[in-house]
Description:
Strand order of the largest sheet: 1-2-3-4-5-6-7-8
Order of helices and strands: HEHHHHHEHEHEHEHEHEHHEHHHH
Radius of gyration: 18 Å
Number of domains: 1
Oligomer: single chain
Amino acid sequence: MSLEKTLIENLPKVELHLHLDCSLSFDVVRSLRPQITKQEYLDKFIAPEKCTSLSDFLKCAVSGIDLMQTENALVEVVKDLFRQLIEENVIYVEIRFAPLQHLKKGLAPEKVVEIISDITNKCINSFGIEAGLILCTLRHFTEVQSLQTAALVEKYIKNTCVVGFDLAADEAGYPIDCHLKAFEYTIRKDIPRTTHAGEARGAESIWESIENFSPQRIGHGVRCIEDPNLIDFLVNKQIHLEVCPTCNIQTNVFKEYSEHPVDFLHKKGISVGINTDARSLVNVTLSDEYNKLMNVFGWDIKDLYECNINSLSSAFISDNLKQELKLKLNEGYSKYV
């Protein structure tokens, strides 16, 4: 292992955009489905390096979701994710999932949230990684399903690991109409909000989300480069972008990593954070992302530190916890910054 790789893995990290059902390692899949071969895992749980679109990419998420339909499976997948996170010194993570996708074998939505929150809390104590849970509604959900998900956030946000609400899935395939009431509800209840936008559709999708959802953060948001006025707005309002560079190449938003606007957006002063999005589906770690940013764009440790501070500042947690975690970031980066 090279000195640079070891250094990057040892740096403390914050990750805000991470899908639980798309982050299953081969080890956990094999423990839940012992008959699976490594080749079957590669074919079913890892997306092609280049998909035709986001919709094409999302088809590969089905295998993980289908496996996560029992209490035991949900528990094991969460534990497996924490084992992945500790290997590269992630100190805070926000894990997102859609509770309504895990009901095929009789679990109730409330039970799904409780199972994942309980094991997350145990993992926080066992692994020493702070974590929050974001509950997702999905673009193809009905208005009733979206409102149901928002109500789950309100029910659990005060006494569990649940910290916020998100709209995910096929941005280009479905309008926002079915989700307006759910976001009105979360705004009224002062629930922290993020939303996927500016990935499969352009700058108009980001404007639409900002105007209708009042999000504190945008998942991806990279197609803001299509509108200079939007870039200025994001800078002035300090709306954080949860950027996932490798995933954006895989979903064909940009052709090559060198064409990704993350470096431009960071230098323009937008609050940018670096994320994997879907660790197994994309087949990437945060350390991989950091190495690519250094090798392709010439980033140094200071740039990585700034993006981690951006993410921490935008996390859906208390100011006290942010201060504690900032001390860990400062300690980890101080010898290099």
